[in-house]
Structure formats: C-alpha cells, structure tokens
Design a protein that fits this description.
Elements lengths: L2 E5 L2 H7 L22 E5 L2 E7 L4 H17 L6 E10 L10 E8 L5 E2 L4 E2 L19 E3 L19 E7 L7 H11 L3 E3 L2 H10 L4 E10 L10 H7 L3 H4 L4
Parallel strand pairs: 1-3, 1-4, 4-11, 5-9, 9-10
Antiparallel strand pairs: 2-3, 4-10, 5-8, 5-11, 6-7
Helix pairs in contact: 2-4
Length: 246
Amino acid sequence: MSLLLCAATGPELAGLVPGFVPEGFSASAAKNWPEMTLWPLRLKCGPALCCTTGVGPVNAALAMGLVLARADAEGTPATAVLNSGLAGAFDLAQHPLLALCRVQEEIWPEYGLHDGHSVTAEAFGFPQWQPSQGPAVRDRIQLAGLEALTALGANPQDPAFLPCTSLTVAGVSASFARASDLRVRYAAGLENMEGFAVAYACARMGIPCVGIRSVSNKVGPRAQDEKDFPGALAALTRVLPALNLI
C-alpha cells in the first residue's frame, strides 16, 4: 500500500512535506521543480510517493493519469491520494486566512449547459462518467474522509481541519460579481484550480482521495489584509503532523 501526496506547484509540495527536495534540485528553487514527475518519499508510516501536477484542471487531470499509471507500472500502486495546496475562501469569517480545510465535496461549475448566464449540469445530456454502481458524475464529486488514511498509518485529528465544499475553476474569480454568483449558486466555501480533476481521476481508478487546503486569500478582489500566500504555504507544514504522518 502506498500514499500519493500531490500539490499543484513545487512551493506547495515543499510546504506540505517539510525537508523534501527532489534529487538534483534545491529547496530554494521549488518553483522550478518539474511537474508530473513521480518521486519516492518516506513518511512515518513507511514509503510513499509525491508529485506536482501543475496548475489548473487540465494539468491536474493529465498529471494524475500519468503518475497513477506510472506508480502502478513500477509496482508501487497508490492506494490513497492526499491532494493539498492553497485555496481562496469566499468568506474569511467562515474560513479564515491560514486555516486548514478538509474538502468534503468538489464542484466543477463549468461543466454542463450554459444558457448565457449560468451553467446547469443536469440540463446537459452527457454525464462525465457513469459508474457501474451509483449515480452519474456530472459537476460534483465526493471526496474521501480522513479515515481513508488510517490504513496507511495516519491517526487523523479531524478538529485540526475545517470541513468545507470547494469549487474547482479554470479561471480564478477576480470580480465581486463572479465571486458572489458562485458563492450563492453553489454554497461553496473555497475556490481552487485542481481539486475536482484530482478527485475525479482517483474515482475513475477506485482510489480514495482526501483533499486538504490552506486558505491563502479571499476569493475575488481583496485588500492587502485579505491575502497571505507565504503564510498559507507555511500553514501547509501543519497538515502531515496533524495526520500523524510525520
């Protein structure tokens, strides 16, 4: 059994796994770590794997297909995935800056029938996937709970993480109107750019996916005190200790 840790970028992976540096690279140049490359890693529970997917849903979907297939081919198939990184919050009172949030559901608000004002997934005749059992996957996918990591040696401390629903977008919301529309329409707490793609790839392969995000900014236009990207990267260092994985 093997746990795969993934993040969109090198700085996010470096925050998630303190002290990890891919062979041939440096910690100071984490932003230049190559994407879609599978690296071995050792956690308290034993051997694990990690990778960076690249930014956005297309990169994330492509990366997960590549690295999961490679892990399987190399005899170290991933039996669970922990996807982590930064995210914006629609309401900083509910999900404060630097808070760690456990994603219960990912929503892709850009899939379905667009009537010129909004997208309705159910109005589109083609689901993304119809599993052999259970409902079709359209614009929503459920993530695994922290208990999915216990078989790999984790001892999750759930109070360390705020539960939330997250939206996955290809274009970051940069206006009050879009941020307000998405928040009201989907009742989501966070906005990110990879979560749905990672969770969907895992679901297609029958692998549980756990999502944990560090809040780095307010969604939409924000004041200087409504963002803290360095602090959110530093907050990622709390994830694995809270799971008792390091």
